[in-house]
Write a sequence for this structure.
């Protein structure tokens, strides 16, 4: 490992992201690290698994949870090629990840930088469908 563990683990994420891209996925890779050791690593798999929830970060969190035998990952750092989205951000908070280090921000849906209600905002990537009608029941 280099003198800078963040650079080392982000480079590992980049390798995983390159593998994902070569397989036709978004170029995202993520690793969960505890005490300087990789607990889990994953590449984006939304296309191959046919599941929008197969983000690299979620897959890495699930693998770390299985490897450690519990959901408390408070001694861990999550590294990712990209800023985790709001879906991944919820899982990160749920698993009590202590630190998140990422390479590239997400203008629309970053879990640390995004603003606005994701379900109803028009500030989303251009390839997304228009916002759905949202109803709180019973309506007032």
């Amino acid at each position: 490992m280099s003198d800078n563990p963040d650079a080392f683990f982000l480079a590992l994420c980049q390798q995983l992201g390159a593998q994902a891209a070569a397989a036709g996925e978004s170029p995202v890779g993520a690793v969960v690290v505890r005490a300087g050791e990789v607990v889990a690593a994953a590449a984006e798999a939304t296309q191959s698994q046919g599941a929008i929830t197969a983000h690299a970060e979620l897959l890495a969190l699930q693998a770390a949870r299985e490897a450690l035998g519990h959901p408390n990952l408070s001694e861990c750092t999550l590294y990712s090629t990209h800023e985790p989205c709001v879906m991944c951000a919820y899982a990160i908070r749920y698993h009590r990840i202590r630190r998140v280090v990422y390479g590239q921000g997400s203008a629309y849906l970053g879990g640390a930088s995004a603003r606005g209600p994701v379900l109803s905002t028009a500030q989303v990537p251009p390839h997304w469908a228009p916002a759905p009608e949202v109803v709180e029941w019973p309506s007032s």
